[in-house]
Amino acid sequence: MSASSSPSSSLSPVVSFDWLEERLGTAGVKVVDASWYLPAHKRDPKAEYAAAHIPGAVFFDQDAISDPTSGLPHTLPAPEAFAAAVGALGLSDSDTIVVYDGPGYFSAPRAWWMLRVMGAANVFVLDGGFDAWKAEGRPVSDAETTIEPAVFSARFDEKAVTSFQDMKSIVASGSRQIADARSAGRFSGEEPEPRAGMRSGHMPGARNLPIGQLTEGGKLKSPEALRETFTAAGIDLDAPVVTSCGSGVTAAVISLALNSLGHENHTLYDGSWAEWGSRADTDVVTGKE
Q1: Sequence-ordered alpha helix ranges (H) in 136-284
Q2: What pTM, to 2 d.p., does this model score?
Q3: 211 and 100 Cβ atoms separated by less than 8 Å
């Protein structure tokens, strides 16, 4: 990145409101609204984007930019399909890309992770989210963003993704720690899954780390606080981790938090609980441990 587009800390995967506002409209700096919500949130991300978005932002449809053949909600599309979809949004793998969602750390990290795993190096999440951006009176627009299609050259990092067969081996051997981002109730089996016909509970050996524990006031916790949070959840930051959640979206919040701490030995289980909890050939345990 050039000095003009580089965030204050090159190690941080997040940027501040001030950092982004100063660079709105700068060549090579692209803004992406990657908002997505569960039905319980009762929020329509496309309608919200049309009504108000950061000027110049494009909408990244989490449901559409996925593999339509997998039978699961949000699995990664083929690299060439991903490249075509984001290139049509005007995104190049060489751009500096800032991704946001409403609350700050719900679905934006998933788009951050996807872009990175497909080869974009300079991708960041807007710390604080669009809800707070609006509340502070920062610039918003309801104008349709003019998009100039770009070429996104995908370079898929297959090693960053854990498959179902990988996950079965990990659970059987205990070779990697499993950090599950779902709520405590879903993890323990005390609350039902939002998708019909799916068992609740968790994979044997998994540790629960709900995403709300990684943020404070809509912003990512300090490195010191994050380390304490991981330790309290039983996650050893000196050992490999695989992240998981309901459908692969919020697992990326844990991935981003790990990245912010310089932890590089982590992968994301793309099928997540939507895959594991819906199969008859997987072990599911209940309770808090």
Answers
A1: 164-173, 184-188, 223-232, 251-260, 272-276
A2: 0.94
A3: no
Range 254-288 burial, b when 16+ CB lie within 10 A, else e: bbbbbbbeebeebbbbbbbbbbbbbeeebeeeeee
Active site residues: 245
H-run or E-run covering 59: strand 58-59
CATH code assigned to 14-156:
3.40.250.10
Would you state the pLDDT for residue 7?
Answer: 53
Q: 135, 104 in Cβ contact below 8 A?
A: no
Per residue in 162-186, pLDDT (tens digit) is: 999 999 999 999 999 999 999 999 9
Q: 203-237 pLDDT, tens per residue? A: 999 999 999 999 998 999 999 999 999 999 999 99
Segment (H or E) for 108: helix 108-117
Domain 159-276: CATH superfamily is Rhodanese-like domain (3.40.250.10)
Contact 256, 125 (CB under 8 A): yes
3-state helix, strand, coil in the chain (%, to 5): 30, 15, 55
- Tally Cβ neighbours within 10 Å of residue 71: 11
Rounded to whole angstroms, how far apart are CA atoms 272 and 180? 9
User: pLDDT tens for residues 1-51?
Assistant: 333 454 544 569 999 999 999 999 999 999 999 999 988 889 999 999 999
The answer to whether 14-156 and 159-276 have equal CATH topology is yes
Domain chopping of the chain, boundaries: 14-156, 159-276
